[in-house]
Amino acid sequence: MAGSDLPPGRHLALTWGIAVPYGGMTTALLDRSRLFAEAGTPVDVLTLDDRAFPLPPVTDPDATTPVTIRNLYDWPRTGGVHPGTGLPDAPPALDPADDGVIIDEANDVILRRLRLGVDGKPVDIDHLRPDGTIALSERRVGARGRLLLARDADGRPVRAWRRRYDFYADWLDHLVGDGEAFLIVDSKTVAPFAAGYRRRRVTTVHVIHGSHRGPKPGSVRASRQAVFSRLTDFDAVAFATDAQAADVRAIVGPRPFLTSVAHPVSLIDAATLPTEAARTGAVVIARLEAIKRVEDAVAAMRLVHNDDGPRVPLDIYGTGSRAAELAVLAEDDDAIRFHGHTDEPAAAMATASVLLLTSRSEAFGLVLLEAMAAGCLPIAYDIAYGPAELIRHGENGWLVADGDVGALADAVRAAVELDPARRGAMRENARATASEYSDARIRRRWASILRAARRRGRTRGGLRRLSAAARRVVGDVRRRLHRPAR
């Protein structure tokens, strides 16, 4: 294997947790990590969710070189915490027989015991090892304070923290050691912590996966406001599209290093794809949640099916809170079929003629690119930020006005009625678009971003140290000037 084009150092991807089935952010994180690993740069995926399992650290079996998934709470469980000083006494263990104490387990192993408050949220927690001993105890101190205490197998205190953020930072310091490291932060939940994690040899990059747009023009949605006020604390902030980076630049000003890097996609071997005549129907692959607006796809296909033309089947893959409601909308149309989650979305898209994307917002719309790679033509609402940057209307797919169900149905009809040779040419155009997002190109882009972010971090660090030295000199001069004469 040739040497990696990525900068040398420890490469870490930080997120809150990895839920199954994967969402878009987790898919992008793991795909990027595999991309790095396949170039010879191992990646550690770090999770902070205290419900994470299994234990100990797990290596992704799909990677040819290491992509290791680690969880914060495995650190005290496996005895890796360095001893501290001035430790408080260990609190008594939570008794599962007490009212308000519940047991949380996974894979037949008790993971933690929790005492719930009146609001139903955890107040005190004991994180357990597989043998039942306490690895870490968390206790509320006062109205808002906390004490986290790592413990050895005999229950003795090992190290204490007064804030979870301090616990997180110590773990990262333990992993990084004295070497160079690159910390890519995907989760908006974790980003506020990462913004304050500043180390001389650690380069931090925050990847924005979703749309930032708030309800008013130029505003930022509430869930991102805290982090957007601190974008300068990261060495780089990466968006999936140039358009989103430009819009955020207009909001936050010139100081943060904003950049863009798309998601990679692999073309499906043309020899394995069906013939034009064999492709039938439409497909939706999305979470069945309000933001994906799958009801519009259902409504559009019902309009198509009310015509005298051919009945175009719609296959919907995904799970979510709106599954039952959507099924009711389509219950009298047997050409609309719900399949639940699929682990093979590429196979579903490779046999369909068109993909429908009806989201309210997207940061990129990776599913559009995956469809194109499979030769499946996308029909998408013209929303920020992905569709307009990927789809050339009438050449490699169709763009329709946002929220216009009638126009969505018209686009499906147009796809069905199009001359097969023209439709086949559009599929080739779609695959050509997808080829522009190859692994090699996206990895080179990441290499460039990480190097630029490292330079910026070192420059800023140097300026901070120079500023601190200057303040010390000024302080010395002032003290001398105000020193009483002898």
From TrEMBL:
In terms of InterPro entries, this protein maps to:
Glyco_trans_1 (IPR001296)
One Pfam annotation reads Glycos_transf_1
Which keywords belong to this entry? Answer: Glycosyltransferase, Transferase
Report if keyword Cell cycle is assigned. Answer: no
EC primary class: transferase
Start and end residues of each Glycosyl transferase family domain: 283-432
Q: What is its EC number?
A: 2.4.-.-
User: Which molecular-function annotation in GO is an example for this chain?
Assistant: glycosyltransferase activity
Protein name, entry field: Glycosyltransferase
Q: Which organism is it from?
A: Microbacterium plantarum
Top-level taxonomy: Bacteria, Bacillati, Actinomycetota, Actinomycetes, Micrococcales
